[in-house]
Amino acid sequence: MRENNWLVFQLPELMSKVARGEVRFQEILRTPSLSCSIYHIPAGSREMQSAHEEDELYLVLEGRARLRVEDDEHLVETGTLMYVQNACDHAFFDIEEDLTVLAFFGTPLTQLPGLRRRG
Description:
This protein is mostly beta strands and 119 residues long. It has one domain (22-108): Jelly Rolls, CATH 2.60.120.10. Helices cover 5% and strands 47% of the residues. It contains 1 helix and 6 strands; from the N terminus they run αββββββ. It has one helix at residues 11-16; strands at 24-30, 34-41, 56-69, 72-77, 81-84, 90-106. Strands 1, 2, 3, 4, 5 and 6 form a 6-stranded antiparallel β-sheet that branches. It is globular, with a radius of gyration of 15 Å.
């Protein structure tokens, strides 16, 4: 059994740890069923992402950009919450303002007994 069965994170403290001026991906939580990272992409950067085995949930903490998911594009800005299903090709682009997001990843379906990948 884990010593602590809960944790508290304060957004101002997380934001203060973001290295400005460079693409940065810092994991802040990992459990057997969930992980969470803070992800920073400076304005003008070209972000390269691809499909993952995990479902993802992104919460934009600051900034403005576009998110491409398969053949669709979406404007994302402070306060936007986005879900991306596992195995979907996606990437942030046209990063107009430094973009900082919380990225939540579920357990890959390949690791859950009795479940198979959707599709």
